[in-house]
Amino acid sequence: MELKNNHLYLGGLPATQLIEEYGSPLYVYEEETIRNRYKDFAENISYPHLRIYYACKANSNLAILRVLKEEGAWIDVSSPGEVFLVLKAGFPPEKILFTSESVPTEEIEFLIHRGILINISSLSQLVRYGDLAQCKKQDAGCKISLRINPDVGAGQHKHVITGGRKSHFGIFIDQLDEIQSVLTRLKGIQVSGIHCHIGSGITEGRQFLEVMEILCGFAMEFPSLEFVNFGGGFGVPYKRDESPLDMKALGRELTLYFEGFCSQYGKTLSLALEPGRYLVAESGFLLAKVNTIKRTPRYKFVGVNTGFNHLVRPMAYGAYHEILNASRVEGEGEPVVVTGNLCESGDLFTQNEEGIEERWIPQIEEGDVLAILNAGAYGYSMSSNYDGRLKPMEIMVKEGKVQVIRKRETLEDLLRGME
Ligand SMILES: Cc1ncc(COP(=O)(O)O)c(C=O)c1O
Questions:
Q1: Is residue 410 classed exposed, middle or buried when 0-12, 13-18 and 19+ CB atoms within 10 A define those classes?
Q2: Residue 35 falls within a domain, yes or no?
Q3: Residue 418, helix vs strand vs coil
């Protein structure tokens, strides 16, 4: 992202020109940002046996998957649909790890048949896996990973905390004996990985290190491990005054700690991490046009042609996304409330956990293009057709060139599967 003559440029092109050519609303991703984020993450962790599983729930567009595959990523998936997409993008089955909750038996079968490693998240799932896999000996088909709830959770909002006693994710850490007794009974299953993911949007390195210590203690109980996976959750700054995660320091400490653990364990294991947001959030911009400006005695409302059906984070978590006027980025502003075009009072892009929030944005007129920043993660991947609205087009930009990576939907798409 660059500012030239007070205009917003993405991948070397003016945002307003992109809207003129490709229509609105429009998701724009800067390819270089994705590559740089990946390199930044990988290069700051010097541990040589590193697996970076991109958590593709953050954004599963094929073009983005291919960029991350080229960079060397492994891949974290959470549904057969994501398995389908990442195989299409060219990820080999051995680089895929499946983690989900409330997993039905048909999904376990689906994964076994495709040779995809399952991160088992409940005792029930473990038993059902054992019955299906019928492991006679320890071979590739009978390797599993275990998702553990380490009794610690963290994250930017209560809805994204996935560890601790109130959380239903993973097998609770005090159930070691139950796990061992199921494994003894089933025979032939090799626990090749121990995993946890405590939440999303974490910006303090300390929280990763605390959980690492707990999980490594648990991992000592499993002698045939190949990796320990500490999950994702690496936060990015959404507000200008927020400090980014110190990846340099965190990478150094993760490496140091894990090296120490491996020498205690008696074998060199791979260190696995599952960043989603960190790799793609900052690459993405949701561009939308201002349709309607109106007032009440209390607020000035700026209505755009997108809504929480395209970016749900403000509505779901009161999440902050910076908003720029693409053709007057800087200048005198006034407090406005940016609203979507859906039939719900919560369809606001400027809100916090308490509700409506005003934002100073330089003079906005009808017809202007607004850019909602940091929309690359959990934007399109959480979108819907609510209110019969079509999903936006997605493009990827790089050095003045545009690649259409998802066509705009048409009204016909609304009929798919219906008579
Ligand atoms: C199992 C698992 N791993 C990784 C992630 C990625 O989290 P983030 O995007 O915060 O890095 C998630 C997100 O929900 C997850 O559920």
A1: exposed
A2: no
A3: coil
199-253 pLDDT, tens digit each: 988 888 899 999 999 999 999 999 999 999 999 999 999 999 999 999 999 999 9
pLDDT at 409 over 70: yes
pLDDT in tens, 138-181: 444 589 999 999 998 888 888 878 888 998 999 999 999 999 99
Which residues, other chains included, contact 136 with Cβ-Cβ below 8 Å and sequence gap of 6+?
188
pLDDT of amino acid 141: 55
Q: How many domains does the chain have?
A: 2
Residue 343: active-site member? yes
What's the token pair of residue 34?
């994705």
Atom of ligand 1 nearest to the CA of 235: 10
Q: If 0-12 CB within 10 Å is exposed, 13-18 middle and 19+ buried, where does residue 53 land?
A: buried
Task: Give pTM, 2 decimals.
Answer: 0.96
Residue 198 sits at φ, ψ, to 5 deg, of -95, -10
For residue 56, the CA-to-ligand 1 centroid distance in Å is 9
Minimal CA–CA distance to 254: which of 273, 226, 227? 273
Given a cut of 70, whether residue 137 has pLDDT beyond it is: no
Structural domain boundaries, residue 230: 44-275
Beta-bridge partners for 336: 359
Domain shared by 255 and 290, yes or no: no
- Cβ atoms of residues 10 and 398 within 8 Å: no
Other C-beta atoms closer than 10 Å to the C-beta of 135 total 18
CATH of the domain at 398: 2.40.37.10
* Residue 253, burial from CB neighbour count under 10 angstroms (0-12, 13-18, 19+): middle
- What was the pLDDT predicted at 138? 45
Sign of the Cα torsion 381, 383, 385, 389 reads negative
Q: Which of 56, 216, 262, 343 is catalytic?
A: 343
β-strand partners of 333: 362
Residue closest via CA to ligand 1's atom 5 equals 232
Q: Give residue 135's pLDDT band: very low, low, confident or very high (50, 70, 90).
A: low
Q: Are 298 and 325 in contact (CB under 8 A)?
A: no
Please report whether residue 362 resides in a domain.
Answer: yes
Rounded distance from Cα 41 to ligand 1 centre (Å): 15
